[in-house]
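Q&A log
Question type: sequence-to-structure
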Amino acid sequence: MDILIRLRISISKIGSITSPRRSIWLSVLMLFFLCTHCATLEEKEARYGVNPPTITATFAKETIVSGDTWRIYLNAFDEDGDMGMIVISSLIQDGWVSYPVDTIRINEDSGRNLSGYLYLTTNPFEELWNVNVELSLYIVDKAGHRSEIKDFTLRFFSKESKEVVDKALFNQAPLGPIKIDIINPLLFDVSGGEAEVQAP
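Response status: OK
Response body:
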């Protein structure tokens, strides 16, 4: 039976308990279900395998124009075929503006061999000239193993760089969007509201 269904049934059985005691029971139940369904690393490795994912090749332009779409090409391999997620672990702008972590799920059929590109869209009406971005990512598999971290740098300029992706090396298929909006820190804060910029 699904864990959420069992949790709902258990909660319904204590529905008549007074509010303070009910809160305690709910907390105990949630802790119990979480603890009994948290597999250890050994259990996950027994199910999915012991091999971590490996990022074998990357490519991304170092300079683009405001309004362009930045593509980060990745090739990765996992002997066990259980790659599950790409994690954007860090995105820092101009050395001090930090953005939230983002994740992109990997399709089941790409769990062993992954090739394609992540894409970050930018606003053509946002003045990003001379803004610099540092992005870090890694891949995690279903057993919890992580690949090495790969770092990328991007600068917004008046024209894009001339580097061209090797189409024979990377699939021209999107792996998913990076769901982050790059903003001009001189106009707005990273939450989207107007802000007075101060030195870090």
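Response note: The CA atoms of residues 5 and 11 lie 10 Å apart.
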